[in-house]
Every structure is written in structure tokens, then in C-alpha cells.
Write a structure and sequence with these properties.
Elements lengths: L6 H12 L2 H15 L16 H15 L9 H21 L1 H25 L6 H25 L5 H6 L13 E2 L2 E2 L8 H20 L17 H14 L4 H20 L6 H30 L3 H5 L3 H22 L22 H34 L10 H16 L8 H18 L25
Helix pairs in contact: 1-2, 1-3, 2-3, 2-6, 3-5, 4-5, 4-14, 5-16, 6-8, 6-9, 8-9, 8-10, 8-15, 10-15, 11-13, 13-14, 14-15, 14-16, 15-16
């Protein structure tokens, strides 16, 4: 029965051929990625086990290759993505052999390389920037209502587990993690913090859409409401961001707001690029100085053992736990620094079984080569966006501010990944952001590209006429 993961794949195949890979990617793959759980998979013999989003992307990428990869242009970031995927796969192979490594190898192709390629090739070149942003926001808008219901009424199983669980013989349920008297919502995502991260990124996209008047103010067939449509969507997403009750996405969202307003204001002070560089660099120095002060305060705050911290506050215990992870597992990483220990193959400290840091866990699993590539990806796109923002005209009207929005989204992801491991739906979601950023930077070299919302249609490959 678990073969139902192929249903969205067949739908994607049909629309990829009859409409375009662009349309199928925006309207089929993204809804499947954000709306269906990644923890449900089909387990066929011999071949790797695809989940819903992995199965869905296969026909889209096949049609994309058949049509000579429209919109694809090579860039240096592509090499880093490929080396990252190869290093994690090779690490698993060297530690466990091909039989155990095949699922991770397939996951790297289907959840890292293919989403990156399609996002880079199809969104900006197809004039689908607004459409892609709207699709992500609308899905998260709908999920927000379910998140709130989970806060108050969820027992053990989510709606997705009740509906899809019988098809996968799934008797397990996600662990309920209450906080402040409420149930932490996770919806179709495997953990509340993953839900919070994705919701925080979607919230940034919605602010950009509202800033650009991409939504109608009111719906014609409905009575006039006291709030406009953009206000309703923004407030609903803000509630959806709160519902997982995860602090890291909240703090990341605040940092993103600081980034957006700082850069928007600083780049608007002067038309001279040199002056902008001085202003922005001075601000970066101030922010870094503030960061070191905050880090020093956090070190002092966490400079107790967890037993002592637990007697004072849960928050202090959590911070102390995360700081202790570096001393506990740093030496273990260096024992096999190149290719790591393989997924979950490292010696576990019973006092710290959970590795709440994506970079630390990546080093344990797959070594420092993979960590270096992952950090290089973040630094590469951040530096390129930073240079682009400084050189482009001031964000007025704000149609030129998409680069700042992309940077704020990456800031959210970067901060949150220092507090949680990198897995589930957030893997392809982040690489979609990376690919989208690369495409945007390539298409905006002259900084004059307007927002285009029309869809791109390709001629159907079928040799017959469709007549109504």
C-alpha cells in the first residue's frame, strides 16, 4: 500500500509533459514537499526507498533533461553542491558499503542536487518569482490553521498520520512535546523546530509579497473585511510561526528583520557605491562586536554543568547542553576528520545522545570535508548577495529588495541550523533557496529585471492535436 507515494509522481509526470517542468515544479513538487510527510516512504526491493517528494521530483527532472535543461547556467556554487553531495555519499559508502549507503546516495541526488538544479533553472528564467513565493506562502497559510488546532487539540497522532498511516502500516506516532501548557505543533514535518524553520522562511517571503502588493487588497466575491488580504495572510503566518513553540526560528526571524531593515536603510543613504560599502561594513563590524559580546555573555550564562543549570531554568539547561556538545564530540570528530563515522556510527555519549547542531552532526556523520562544503555554501551565497545588495539601486520601489529577502531567509536557516540537525523536508527546502538565489543573482546582473508573473509554456511533445 505504501506505493501511493507514486501518485504525486504520476501527476507531476503528466503536467511536466503537457504543460512544462516549470509548472509541475511550482504547482506539484512544492506542495508535495511542504504538504506531505517526508517520513513516509515506499520500500521496494533492490532500489532505494523514495518518499513523496523524492518520487515527485523524478519525472520533473527527466522532462527537464529531455528538453535540454532550459534555464540552466553553470556557476561555481554548483561545484560546492556536487562536492557536498558526493562527500556525504562517499562517507556512508566507506563506512558501511553500498548496500547500507544506497538510500543516502539517492537522498543526496533527489533531495539536494535535483531541487537545487530545478530551482536554479526554472523559477527566475520562467518569470515565476512571484508565483513560487505565493505557492509556498499559501501552503504554509493553510498549515497554520492546523498548527493552531494541534496546539490545543492534538492527542498523539497528527492528521497526516491518521490519514496516511494505514497505507504504511505505521503504528508509531510522533512524540508529544508540550511547552508552556500547549502541545508543540509540527503538522506534516517530523519535528516542531523543522516546522518553525520552514514557517519562518515563508513568513519572510510573505512580507516581501505584501511589500510588493502582490496580493489583491480584497476579494471581489466576499464582503469587505476589516483587514486586507495581505494583512490576514501575514497575521496567520505569524501565528503559524508561533505555534511550533520553537525559540530558534523566533530568534532567527528577529535577526532576519534586523538584516532587512539595516540593509534597506543603509543602501538608501547614498547613491555612491563606495559610501554604501563604508556604511554597510561599519554596520557589520558593529554587529559582529555585538555578537561577540552576546556570545561571551552566553558562555558565562552556560558556564555551569547541566545539573546546576537545571536547578535554575530550563532555558539555561538547554544552552549549557548545546555548549557541552562541542567539548564532548569535538575530539570524536577529529578521530575521523575526513569522512566521519557514517550516519549514527559515532560513539554516543549517553549523557548527550542528541546532537542539536547541524554542523556538529554533519562532522560526526560525514567528516569535515562535508562540513566545509556546507559552510562554503552559506558563505558563498551570503557574500554574493551582500555584494549584489550594495551595488544595486536602493529598494524604492521595493521590487529590487528580493535580494535582501533571500539574504534574510538564509540568515534564518543558518542560525537555526546551529540549534538543530539538518534533515527531513528542510534539506530540499534549503537547497531550493540556494538554487533560487543563484538564479536570481544571474538574472539580476543589470539590476533592472521587473517582476514577471506569467507562466512559461512549452510545446507538447505529443504528436496529436487536442481538440475541445
Amino acid at each position: 500500500m505504501s506505493i501511493i507515494v507514486l501518485i504525486p509522481a504520476f501527476i507531476a509526470a503528466y503536467f511536466s509533459f503537457t504543460r512544462s517542468p516549470n509548472w509541475a515544479f511550482i504547482n506539484i513538487y512544492i506542495p508535495v514537499l511542504l504538504g506531505l510527510p517526508a517520513y513516509y516512504a515506499w520500500h521496494p526491493p533492490i532500489i532505494p526507498d523514495p518518499n513523496f517528494n523524492e518520487a515527485t521530483i523524478i519525472p520533473i527532472i527527466i522532462v527537464f533533461f529531455m528538453r535540454n535543461m532550459p534555464g540552466w547556467r553553470f556557476s561555481f556554487i554548483d561545484i560546492i553542491v556536487l562536492v557536498f553531495a558526493f562527500s556525504t555519499s562517499y562517507s556512508e559508502y566507506t563506512n558501511y558499503g553500498y548496500k547500507e549507503a544506497q538510500n543516502l546516495m539517492a537522498n543526496m541526488i533527489l533531495s539536494v542536487i535535483f531541487p537545487y538544479i530545478l530551482a536554479k533553472s526554472l523559477i527566475e528564467s520562467g518569470g515565476l518569482r512571484v508565483e513560487a513565493a505565493k505557492r509556498i506562502v499559501l501552503i504554509l497559510f493553510a498549515l497554520s490553521f492546523i498548527f493552531v488546532l494541534e496546539n490545543f487539540f492534538r492527542s498523539s497522532y497528527t492528521v497526516w498520520q491518521r490519514v496516511l498511516g494505514p497505507f504504511f502500516n505505521s503504528g508509531w506516532n510522533l512524540v508529544i512535546t508540550p511547552r508552556w501548557g500547549l502541545t508543540r505543533a509540527n503538522g506534516p514535518f517530523v519535528h516542531p523546530i523543522i516546522a518553525g524553520i520552514i514557517m519562518a522562511v515563508g513568513f519572510r517571503l510573505q512580507l516581501w509579497l505584501a511589500w510588493n502588493n502582490a496580493w489583491p487588497t480584497h476579494l471581489k466575491k466576499l464582503p469587505k473585511l476589516p483587514l486586507t488580504i495581505p494583512q490576514i495572510i501575514t497575521i496567520t503566518l505569524a501565528v503559524g510561526l508561533i505555534a511550533p513553540l520553537s525559540r530558534a526560528p523566533w530568534i532567527g526571524s528577529i535577526l532576519a528583520v534586523v538584516v532587512v531593515f539595516s540593509l534597506a536603510k543603509l543602501t538608501g543613504f547614498s547613491k555612491k557605491v563606495a559610501t554604501r560599502y563604508i556604511l554597510v561594513c561599519a554596520t557589520v563590524v558593529v554587529l559582529l562586536a555585538g555578537w561577540f559580546i552576546v556570545e561571551e555573555a552566553a558562555n558565562e550564562f552556560a558556564a555551569v554543568d547541566r545539573k546546576s543549570a537545571s536547578e535554575e531554568s530550563t532555558e539555561r539547561q538547554t544552552i549549557a547542553y548545546r555548549f557541552e556538545l562541542y567539548t564532548t564530540y569535538g575530539a570524536i570528530i577529529m578521530e575521523r576528520w575526513a569522512w566521519g563515522w557514517g550516519r549514527l556510527g559515532w560513539p554516543v555519549d549517553k549523557a548527550q545522545p542528541s546532537i542539536d547542531n547541524a554542523f556538529l552532526l554533519l562532522g560526526l556523520n560525514h567528516g569535515l570535508i562535508a562540513v566545509g562544503c556546507f559552510i562554503a555554501l552559506f558563505l558563498g551565497v551570503i557574500i554574493k548577495l551582500f555584494l549584489h545588495i550594495v551595488h544595486q539601486p536602493a529598494a524604492s520601489p521595493p521590487t529590487s529588495a528580493f535580494s535582501i529577502t533571500l539574504l534574510s531567509m538564509i540568515v534564518v536557516e543558518l542560525f537555526c541550523l546551529t540549534t538543530v540537525s539538518f534533515y527531513s523536508a528542510n534539506v530540499p527546502f534549503l537547497f531550493i533557496i540556494f538554487g533560487w538565489t543563484e538564479s536570481y543573482l544571474r538574472s539580476s546582473k543589470k539590476y533592472t529585471q521587473p517582476i514577471v508573473t506569467q507562466n512559461v509554456q512549452y510545446k507538447s511533445s505529443f504528436r496529436f492535436r487536442r481538440v475541445i
